[in-house]
Amino acid sequence: MTRALPIAPPEPSGRAPRRSSRRATAHPLAGALFVLPFFLVVVAFLVVPLGFAFWLSLSSKSLARGTRFSGVDNYVRAFTDPLLLDGVVRVVLFGVVQIPIMLGVALAGALAIDAVGTRFARVYRLVAFTPYAVPAVLGALMWGFLYSRTFGVFADVPVLFGGQPVDFFSSSLLLVSLGNIVTWAWTGYNTIVLYSALQGVPRETCEAAVIDGASPVQIALRVKVPAIRRAVSLAAIFSVIGTVQFFTEPYVMARFAPQISAGYTPNLYAYNQAFAYSNFHYSAAISFTLGFVVFVVAHVFVVVSRRRGAAS
Amino acid sequence: MTTTTGSRRRSGEPSSRLAHALMAAGVLYFVLPLVWIVIAATKSQPDLLSSPALWFGREFSLIDNVRRLFREDGGVYGRWLANTALYSGVSAAGATLLAALAGYGLARFSFWGKRFFETALLGMIMVPATALVLPTYLILSKTGIVNTVWAVVLPSLLSPFGTYLVRVHVTESVPVELIDAARVDRAGELRIFLQIVVPLMRPAIVTVFLVTLVATWNNYFLPLVVLSDADLYPLTVGLTTWFNTAQQEAGTRQLFDLVITGSLLAVVPLVAAFVLLQRFWRSGAGSGALK
Amino acid sequence: MPGISRWRRASRRLVPVLAAGGLLAAAACTTGDGAEPGGDGGPVRVSVWAWYPEFAGVVEAFNASHTDVQVDWTNVGTGPDQYAKLKTAFEAGTGAPDVAMVEFQQIPTFVVLDALADMGQYGANEDEHLYAEWAWSQATDGDAVHAIPVDGGPMALMYRKDLFEQHQIPVPTTWAEYAEAAVKIKAADPNAYVASFGSDGGWINGLMWQAGCRPYGYSPAEGRERVTIALTGPECRKVFDLHGDLVQRGLMAQDPFFTADATAALDSGKYWTWAAAGWTPGYVAGSLTRTAGRWAVAPMPQWTAGGDEQGDWGGSTFTVTKQAKNPGAATTVARELFGTSEAAWDVGLNKAFLHPLVTDVAADPAFIGKSHDFFGGQKVNEIFVPVSEKLGDFQFTPFQDFVFGELNDRSAEAMAGERPWSTVLEETQKNVVAHAEQQGFTVTQ
Q1: Least confident piece of the model among A38-42, A101-105, B142-146, C58-62
Q2: Which chain A residue has its CA at the smallest distance from B24's CA?
Q3: Which of B7, B9, B32 to mutate to test the interface with A (most CBs of A within 10 A)?
Q4: What pLDDT is recorded for position C340?
Q5: Which residues of chain C does A255 touch, with a Cβ-Cβ cutoff of 8 Å?
Q6: What fold does the segment set C154-311+394-444 form as a domain?
Q7: Is the distance from CB of C384 to CB of A262 less than 8 angstroms?
Q8: For chain B, which domains are there?
Q9: Does C217 score more than 90 pLDDT?
């Protein structure tokens, strides 16, 4: 999963409220010059490619008849393409199960580290974070080996108890197997993010709760978790973004499990439309739709959480 | 980026035991595949196929595997390693520089179009990378830099997230007063940036550098599409090519062991970088402390 | 995933088939008509993408025997990986090699993408007599030569001779007998299966071909926009009826082919047969170590007793792309990399284990008469070579990736119990027709 990286956002409850600093007195051109190099890269590698993709998506190139302008046809097709919709359903299902598990484990880990602060907690933090440094392709390959009966560890566990070996690549378990890879790769990262946020929770809040006789678990659940609500929701939104883009793991895993179909995830479908079926225009429309959906979902989420943040 | 540096609290015994039990289970989970790959890298191909997955084989073949790894296909693995280091090093340095400049510019200056750009920044973070690769390829091919180092490095310079991170960090930890004071002393803007601002935002810079380093080191899709010369491949693309060949030839050409050893060696540098830079990384992720 | 390539073979362990002496009539030292020296007076350099095993030796042989044309070879990935790169390069209008390895089923796809040069203009029609008829017909369209055949995958049944004999199960000569054998195998060993249904588009296609099913029709020369798709005929259907039934009764396993697990299973006695192809001897001989010597090859079971229908699974060609800078020189390379080059075929047969489509090479007594230790000394090419000669006409669609992907994905659904086996072909037909019409083709069903 390719993901942009969430880092602990500033919690609104911090003791140094953000000031708006619009007092810059320098030459206006200076600021623009600082931003210019980045701006040029944005134009060259984001705005232009996006514009180009959009332009592509407005025409169709059929194998038999060549290119013609087709307006929103590709988009209409995308929203009615059963193969694409299958993938969408699958990814939604995947996200609904995997994201809460991953964030739950990450939150538990972060709370544990924060609560004990021992040397072991530091070891845990480091170990949990290590998978982040493993390229997604190699992580998926490693798990592919681990799942396999020939190379792996787990498939034959039930045999020890007289059962049948598990086939992690079977259609019924595939999504679980994939979910595990993603969870393994990203839980530690989210743990660090949430842990950083926890460190920003003012001490006094917790101390007050201790005086009130709250147990550490109660403090964790009633004081700390609400205090880092924004970090949790930001981690959630980045996980959603990653899930919508789900590609690398199924792409690699298809070499172990050929039943990963061309439209297994929407992004895989977009890839196959372009690179296997030469439907570059339709592929651009799918990518664009996906990007748009992500953008809208993320935006709504940010707006809603800001409102709720302001209200509380 | 958080506003206080929390101090750790030692808690009561039972919950501490709970916490430790949770963490112990977690350590096992996270470390298992890594233990497996370390062990698997010590095995020859026949051992891989026949010995227990989590224990050593009949012979210790790590040295032999590494030697073969660097000899296979005319030593191309060494090139992949060097390419990966080059791509990610240059991209990370470049992206960090751009992000530092832009983040500072956005945080401490006002100019025409700034607000719009800042709003757009959040949107940019959310653009799926895969949506950009194909059009980027088509555009790059018109300029003739497809299948060159630049085709990987230039698009990797784009890090809206890095810029966002620096901007937030500067807003919180680079006092306006300090900059104003320097301006009163008639220091040039570039000098203020280099001598005052950069030292203050070191944690953010380290974080952005690491994040972009990892992103490029781990990137698969972009190099897969824009490169067609095996001598230019990074590790991710090269090793998957080998893996496919290994599948294709069903283990007759001994490649599974090399893919595994190669993956281990590909992961080690980044893990080492993280362990070594852990301090900076943490203070980057959780920073905001006004020093 | 669509288009997972079924082009595999390997092992360096077999002893050379071809003796050093002149087995092949003509040494390929001549260059074709179009070859001109490079502008600077040096040799023309032709870039080639291919993923044959041991291909470096073939390139070396070519470069050693040619002075005015030299090959620069790159392996950009296997099957679908390379095709993805080719398609991207054609979309971009730049970046494709001069010569590319392309499997038979992909030729119409690249033809309709207008990606392939017509080698007929550079004298390639002269080579027609060299190749197996079915292969030449798939590689050409009228006088247009889109590809030069290299190797094929005539199908035959690989089986565990020792186990069949031990349990006194007759080697099936018809598919009905095959189903009976499946029952007996299960009775002999509850953990064993007659074979695995690999849900592999290319393999399924081979089985359909062998059943007399001709589901596709496409000839750009006759009508670029017209394509025939008829996947639901009785000849096609019976393949799915039989295998679906075996899978449902638990007599046929459901593991994919070509994974390490599949190899281990073949080597463990889990499967007793495999409907394999001419490249199999090289592929299995190196990877199955425990059961080496216990296998044998029999002709494919027939649908009617005494019949002689055959099929092909896999095979590849060289094509010249429209982006080739010097199509004449590129044609020379495509024709002569293997062609009748003795040195190239020495590598191709003895190290890469290709099943040659050059009829003289396939008919060579040294190739046909080679006994394979893996098959208990059996001369398996005595079975494979006649199959290749008998293969009839078979056409592919200009979107075969999609068709194979559909066959693969819909079969996988049937195996997972998500759809009745009887609907696999109907659903595939429906989706393929929709795709074809979407692409602007007029479909005859």
Answers
A1: B142-146
A2: A124
A3: B9
A4: 92
A5: 259
A6: D-Maltodextrin-Binding Protein; domain 2 (3.40.190)
A7: no
A8: 74-285 (1.10.3720.10)
A9: yes
* CATH class of the structural domain C44-153+314-381: alpha beta
**Percent of chain A surpassing pLDDT 90:** 31
Hunting for tokens 């009561």 — which residue is that? B12
Residues from chain B contacting residue C5 (CB–CB below 8 Å): 248
* Residue among B19, B49, B161 minimizing CB distance to A150: B49
Closest-CA residue of chain C to A280? C91
Tokens of B196: 């005052």
> Over pLDDT 90: what percentage of chain C?
68
CATH code, residues A82-311: 1.10.3720.10
Residue C34 confidence (pLDDT): 40
> In chain C, where are the structural domains located?
44-153+314-381, 154-311+394-444
Q: What is the pLDDT of residue B252?
A: 53
Residues of chain A in contact with residue B97, where contact means CB-CB under 8 angstroms, are: 37
Closest CA–CA distance from residue A312 to any residue of chain B (Å): 19
| Residue to test with chain A: of C261, C415, C418, C432, most A Cβ within 10 A | C261
Q: Mean pLDDT, to the nearest integer, of A216-231?
A: 84
Q: Does A102 touch chain B (CB under 8 A)?
A: no
Alpha carbon of C84: minimum distance to chain B alpha carbons (Å): 8
Q: How far apart are CA B182 and CA A197, in angstroms?
A: 33
Q: For testing the chain C interface, which of B49, B79, B252, B254 should be mutated: the one with the most C CBs within 10 Å?
A: B252
What are the φ and ψ backbone dihedral angles of C73, each rounded to 5 degrees? -100, 135
Sketch the domain layout of chain A as residue ranges.
Answer: 82-311
- Token readout for C91 is 């979309």
CA–CA gap between residue C392 and residue C210 (Å, rounded): 10
**Eight-class DSSP state of B163:** H
* Letter string b/e over residues A45-62, b meaning 16 or more CB atoms within 10 A of that residue's CB: bbeebbebbeebbbebbb
Tens digits of per-residue pLDDT, C27-53?
A: 333 344 444 444 566 899 999 999 988
B32–A153 CB contact, under 8 Å: yes
- High-pLDDT (> 70) share of chain C, %: 91
For C89-106, the pLDDT digits (tens) are 898 888 899 999 999 999
Distance CA B215, CA B156 (A): 8
pLDDT confidence of residue B124 = 83
- Evaluate whether C44-153+314-381 and C154-311+394-444 have a shared fold: yes
**pLDDT at residue A257 is higher than 90:** no
Of C59, C44, C112, C101, residue with least CA distance to C78:
C101
* Mean pLDDT along residues C186-208: 92
Q: Which residues of B touch A273 (CB under 8 A)?
A: none
Ranges of beta strands (E only) in C125-232 are 140-141, 144-145, 147-160, 216-218, 226-229
Measured CA to CA, the distance from residue B138 to residue B131 in angstroms comes to 12
Q: Do C399 and C87 contact (CB within 8 A), yes or no?
A: no
First CA to last CA across chain A, in angstroms? 34
Task: Give C356's DSSP letter.
Answer: B
> Helices B129-143 and A280-311: crossing angle, nearest 10°?
130
Does the pLDDT of residue C12 top 50, yes or no? Answer: no
Query: Across residues C14-26, what is the average pLDDT?
Result: 37
Q: Do C399 and A257 touch (CB under 8 A)?
A: no
Residues A188 and A128: their CA atoms lie apart, in Å, by: 4
Say what the pTM is. 0.85
Cβ-based contacts of B256 with chain C (< 8 Å): 260
Which residues from C are below 8 Å from B141, CB to CB? 89, 92-95
Q: Is B189 exposed, middle or buried (0-12, 13-18, 19+ CB in 10 A)?
A: buried
Segments of chain B scoring below 50 in pLDDT:
1-12, 251, 284-291
Distance of CA B226 to the CA centre of its chain: 19
Rounded CA separation B69/B80 (Å): 11
